[in-house]
Amino acid sequence: MLRAAGVGLGDEVVVPAFGNVEAAEAVAMAGALPVFADIDPVTYCLDASAVEAATTPRTAAVVVVHRFGRPADITRFHAIGQRHGLLVLEQGESEAPYDEIAQRRERAAYLDVKLRGLRTPDGGDGHTYEQYVVRVPGNGRPDRDAFARALRARGVECRVPVKTPVHRLPEFRRCVPLPETERAADETLALPVDAALTKRDMQRVAGACNALGGLLQPAF
User: Fold this and answer.
1) Residue 131 · residue 107 · CB < 8 Å
2) How far is it, in rounded angstroms, from Cα 196 to Cα 204?
3) Distance from C-alpha of 126 to C-alpha of 205, rounded to nearest angstrom
4) Number of other residues whose CB lies within 10 A of the CB of residue 196
5) What DSSP string describes 130-173?
6) What confidence tens digit (pLDDT) does each residue in 195-220 have?
7) What is this structure's pTM?
8) pLDDT digits (tens, 9 = 90+) for 173-186
9) Region for residue 15 given its phi and psi (left: phi exceeds 0; alpha: psi -120 to 50; beta: otherwise)
10) 161 with 100: CB under 8 angstroms?
């Protein structure tokens, strides 16, 4: 799509650093330069204000990635595109059947109520819970990783959704301040809300998390 729109050598394209590397790779394959902007700490999608701040006369496009089933506020990005003459592209996630989404929402709602000490995801704007991503408060990665190891030892599957932001990868390394991206990479953890999980499974997830409250320290 970038090539079809004439984006190429000498152009800049704003992309998120929090998430998969594919968007930055696509920009590079088109011959353009990926420029990383910070994320909104609630949606984990690109922050519209950060995108506007990253825009220069060379900016040709912005790639908006919907994250974890929580859609970005695409209306704001189209407004930015109109103001600056930018192409706005969206990268979505795989769509699940309605019944599966409804079941994930049901499990997410259960965790929202039961979990203690973890910052649960914001469920607004049609969240489909492709992943149920919580924040583990503390001093960053050591606390989150210790919490994840302890959960796995108790038989609860969990995963770090973004281990290394794209702007820290060798092929795309940039010295650019992205505080919300860095913080999210250090604190986020995805807990299971798959449709196949039973009520007993969800009780085990919540119970294991709450039993580890001593590992959680207030974030300063």
Assistant:
1) no
2) 14
3) 24
4) 8
5) SSEEEE--SSSHHHHHHHHHHHHHTT---B-S-SS-GGGSGGG-
6) 999 999 999 999 999 998 756 655 44
7) 0.91
8) 988 999 999 999 99
9) beta
10) no
CA angle 3, 19, 185 (to 5 degrees): 150
- Burial class from Cβ neighbours inside 10 Å (0-12, 13-18, 19+) for residue 160 reads middle
Question: To 5 degrees, how large is the angle CA 220–CA 67–CA 191?
Answer: 65
Average pLDDT, rounded, for the chain: 92
Structure tokens of 57?
């006369």
Position 218, amino acid: P
The CA dihedral of 213, 159, 163, 209, to the nearest 10 degrees, is -10
* More confident call, 141 vs 79: 79
Contact 48, 75 (CB under 8 A): no
Radius of gyration of the chain from its Cα atoms, rounded to whole angstroms: 18
SS3 105: helix
As a whole number of angstroms, the distance between CA 105 and CA 132 comes to 9
What is the rounded distance in angstroms from the CA atom of residue 40 to the CA atom of residue 31? Answer: 28
Residue owning tokens 């914001």: 122
Sign of the Cα pseudo-torsion (172, 145, 44, 100, in order): positive
What's the rounded Cα separation, in Å, for the pair 112 and 136? Answer: 14
